[in-house]
Amino acid sequence: METLQFFYSPGACSLALHVALEQSGLAFEPVCKRIAQGEHLDPAYRQIHPQARVPALWVGGESLTELPALLVYVAQRAPAARLLPDEPLAQARVLGLLAWLSSTLHIAFAHLWRGERFATEPEVWKHLEQVARAQLPGLFEELDARLPPQGWVGGAQPGIGDFAVLPFARWALRLGVPIGPRLQALLAAAAELPAVQRALAREGLESLTPAPL
């Protein structure tokens, strides 16, 4: 089976896929594209991801993008790792969380940091940033309510639902956005996983719980 080529930027949403790959046991080749240094804008990378974003996977001569799809792909490629529950209701809960993170929470952060994606006027960017800052505390309250009272999102063991939450939680903590007790417990449990520790080390990140900027 071919090795997966995995494109990421340290601390970006690609951290979720990084952890999933480490947990899966699949062979993969990590390729760092530091967004802060503009490495993702390289024309060669645009052949892999036309929007010059992360994460991306290169699989057998084909490019795969979009974090929720990539997480499910990895889970299905490594069924023995049980990254996605088989039971339909539990699976639907995980997939619902992935959809909400992608369509709602991630968009709020994009409004905060990437206003140019949504408007051409700098004044509109400022407005989007203000709206996002006002929304984030409530969105993290909603995220906490979506998490189980205890344990992992998918049931008995960690999986892609848990890993998908990690980068967004780190961003919230850096911004000083409060996070609830369920998310705090999830971060504490995830920090003990060797897969999380390996991904953080490769990305040069000290912790899942960084201090506010």
From TrEMBL:
User: What PROSITE patterns does UniProt report for this protein, alphabetically?
Assistant: GST_CTER, GST_NTER
Q: Name one Pfam family in it.
A: GST_C_2
- Domain GST N-terminal, by residue range, is 1-82
Where in the numbering of this chain does the GST C-terminal domain appear? 87-211
The record's listing under PANTHER family reads: GLUTATHIONE S-TRANSFERASE GSTA (PTHR44051:SF8), GLUTATHIONE S-TRANSFERASE-RELATED (PTHR44051)
Recorded protein name is Glutathione S-transferase
Native species of this protein?
Inhella proteolytica
